[in-house]
């Protein structure tokens, strides 16, 4: 007797199987399971995937769009300035309320884990206080990691060094940084060294906003790779954004990417935000800013796509849909071969789980019984359709459901219903 069985599931690797769950864990993944279950989900050939994972988000700012005003220029710097105006007015309760509302939405979209940055340039550290509280409140349905993020600079912001120490004492999970926002390139490099040293001493991973600029001479990722090796942090360091790499010359990149691979670094582009904020000073041709995703993947670097923002000072759109993130990446990076699109799907699932160091993630016996049933037959179709999440399962319990999206058609001589998930040619 199982607690739950998902029947006739298409798995991301192309297999078709039933998934049986017992005591919050996956007990079996094989065709034709005939045992009884407390609940049965008929996937009916739909894709069943491990949960979506968002490796880069700003939950302290989410759903704050319009406070205190809108970002008229659409630039990163105006967004930072707007957030700076809002910070003195922040309360922990308001952050918690907005974050919990966002997490309600995230669950319905099949997100099972989020790494959020908490701005420690707010001297009261209400952001850290709030997000650590949220981490406890949502533990039953979303795994949350909190990054101590010095938005205004580790050295540039008054009291930045002390704020980092206090945030670590409060219990954050990850050390963050923003070297390109320090006053000088030298200070940026110095901050990378200091923050990696702290992470090594405290036994914490590093996730650094790195070179989020169109300036091809912003090369702090090189320093981050070197300090990763120096402090023995291989496999525990992520460089987020990396948009300057979009503008670097090819010769320099041919040196840089192998250095990142040697350091075992993770790369976290944020497609929706990177193409929106970058290139704002260009006329034409206009740069789109997203880093060199196919080249990083080809070098064996784990690339994970983040959502970054939803309805906040930097981005007025978004709905917690990691398939929308992958969909944008496919277009901007021209990853349109079937193999490349599957890589984009992995960048919002298994790659992101690897970046966050999640244990028990996957669709194999012994893994946590966390998965999503999608109205699509395979990962490529899921990206194309930004597929409806028919069921979201957490530890073997269905925690969100959405009816299958089918349109009624009233045209003489044509079918009465249209299901977009049935449209791909058999050979696709």
TrEMBL record:
**Record-listed E.C. numbers:** 3.5.4.1
Is Hydrolase set as a keyword in this record? yes
Its top-level enzyme class, in one word, is hydrolase
Q: Which SUPFAM superfamilies match?
A: Composite domain of metallo-dependent hydrolases, Metallo-dependent hydrolases
Keyword Cytoplasm among UniProt keywords: no
Q: Where is the Amidohydrolase domain?
A: 39-399
Name one molecular function that GO assigns to this entry.
isoguanine deaminase activity
- Fetch the Pfam families from UniProt: Amidohydro_3
Keyword annotations of the record: Hydrolase, Metal-binding
Q: Which GO terms describe its biological process?
A: cytosine catabolic process
In Swiss-Prot or TrEMBL terms, this protein is called Cytosine deaminase
């Amino acid at each position: 007797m199982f607690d739950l069985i998902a029947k006739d599931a298409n798995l991301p690797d192309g297999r078709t199987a039933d998934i049986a769950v017992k005591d919050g864990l996956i007990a079996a993944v094989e065709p034709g399971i005939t045992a009884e279950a407390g609940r049965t989900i008929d996937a009916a050939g739909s894709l069943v995937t491990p949960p979506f994972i968002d490796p880069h988000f700003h939950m302290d700012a989410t759903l704050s769009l319009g406070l205190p005003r809108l970002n008229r220029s659409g630039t990163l710097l105006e967004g930072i300035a707007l957030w700076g105006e809002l910070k003195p007015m922040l309360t922990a309760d308001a952050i918690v309320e907005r974050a919990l509302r966002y997490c309600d939405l995230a669950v319905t979209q099949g997100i099972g884990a989020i790494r959020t940055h908490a701005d420690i340039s707010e001297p009261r550290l209400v952001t850290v206080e709030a997000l650590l509280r949220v981490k406890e409140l949502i533990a039953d349905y979303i795994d949350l990691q909190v990054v101590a993020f010095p938005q205004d600079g580790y050295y540039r912001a008054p009291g930045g060094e002390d704020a980092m120490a206090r945030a670590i004492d409060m219990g954050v999970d990850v050390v963050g940084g923003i070297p390109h926002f320090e006053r000088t390139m030298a200070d940026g490099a110095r901050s990378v060294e200091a923050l990696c040293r702290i992470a090594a001493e405290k036994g914490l991973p590093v996730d650094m906003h790195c070179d989020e600029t169109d300036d091809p001479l912003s090369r702090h990722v090189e320093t981050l790779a070197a300090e990763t090796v120096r402090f023995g942090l291989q496999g525990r360091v992520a460089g987020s954004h990396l948009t300057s790499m979009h503008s670097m010359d090819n010769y320099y990149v041919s040196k840089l990417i192998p250095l990142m691979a040697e350091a075992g670094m993770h790369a976290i582009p944020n497609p929706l935000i990177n193409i929106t904020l970058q290139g704002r000073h260009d006329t034409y041709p206009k740069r789109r800013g997203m880093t060199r995703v196919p080249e990083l993947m080809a070098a064996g670097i784990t690339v994970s796509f983040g959502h970054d923002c939803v309805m906040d000072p930097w981005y007025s759109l978004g709905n917690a849909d990691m398939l929308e993130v992958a969909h944008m990446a496919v277009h901007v990076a021209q990853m349109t071969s079937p193999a490349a699109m599957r890589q984009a799907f992995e960048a919002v699932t298994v790659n992101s789980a690897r970046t966050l160091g999640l244990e028990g993630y996957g669709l194999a016996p012994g893994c946590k019984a966390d998965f999503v049933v999608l109205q699509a037959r395979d990962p490529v179709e899921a990206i194309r359709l930004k597929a409806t999440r028919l069921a979201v399962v957490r530890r073997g319990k269905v925690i969100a459901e959405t009816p299958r999206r089918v349109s009624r058609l009233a045209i003489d001589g044509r079918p009465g219903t249209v299901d977009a998930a049935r449209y791909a040619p058999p050979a696709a």
